[in-house]
Amino acid sequence: LEGIWVQPGDRLSIRVNPAYTTIPLPRAIHSEKDSEDVFLALYLYPSLSLLGFLTAKEKLEKKDPSMKYTNNDIMEYKENKAFDYRFYAASFGGANNIADIGVYVLGSNDKASLQLPIEMKTPAVFPEALLSLVSPRISTTTHRETISEMTEDDFKRIQGWAIEFKWPEKGQTLGHRASMKHSKVISQVWNQMVAHEQSGHLYISSPYYLADGVMDILIWTLKAVGYIKRDIEVPPVRDDWWKEVKESVSEASSDEEKVTLPGINMRTVPHKALRVYKKREARNRNKQLRTKE
Length: 293
What we know:
By secondary structure, this protein is mostly helical. 41% of the residues lie in helices and 9% in strands. Strands 1-2-3 form a three-stranded antiparallel sheet. The chain has a two-stranded parallel ribbon with strand order 4-5. Strands 6-7 form a two-stranded antiparallel sheet.
């Protein structure tokens, strides 16, 4: 994105600047449709507009590298019928695991391929507290350990430490009542990815919030459609620590941890992983002290 300046009021700004894109949006979320309207207008459509702008800019500069194009010049070319725009958002059709919307890319044969499945939930259906259990926010404090907040150092300590997810057999329910919602959402999203030829472990980022979400969604969209070529750096998955989690019913701290049902194993969420890490550190320190003695 180097060298791109969004000037107030120009044709690019009107398509991507939240000061313009949020004008017709609802001021409160009452339904999933409201969530969808906000996501599309504030995040996804601006991302696709900027993606079109970037590809149009590249084509124009290849035609005449000496020419200095303004944002309006590039947008005019992008919106011209002669410009072959290959990216779009649309609903799913005929899939068993249907997401709310997907970003597609047209290939050389004009066959569309799904690059980014998107599932939207209202705060009532999937409140932040549930998200924070499996994807805690980073705290600005240095000594707090809660379900919803962990420090930057905490995340570094347990980088790659996986949450165990047990897939249900036919007829089984997903987890305890307290964990069922996020188990269902993770199962839904994971199935959407697998059903569309994506595989591997499911990586969950830290939450993004309104203030910086536009740029985050833009970067993920650019990566999903192949515009950003650099690989995403992800840590190697570690599940060796699961055997250290206490399996005894008597030591479980809540009903939802007493039995491991299908879905998220509540004993392996991030704040539990951090406790195991700290116990390992304490054991190592004690060993070192005994060695010195």
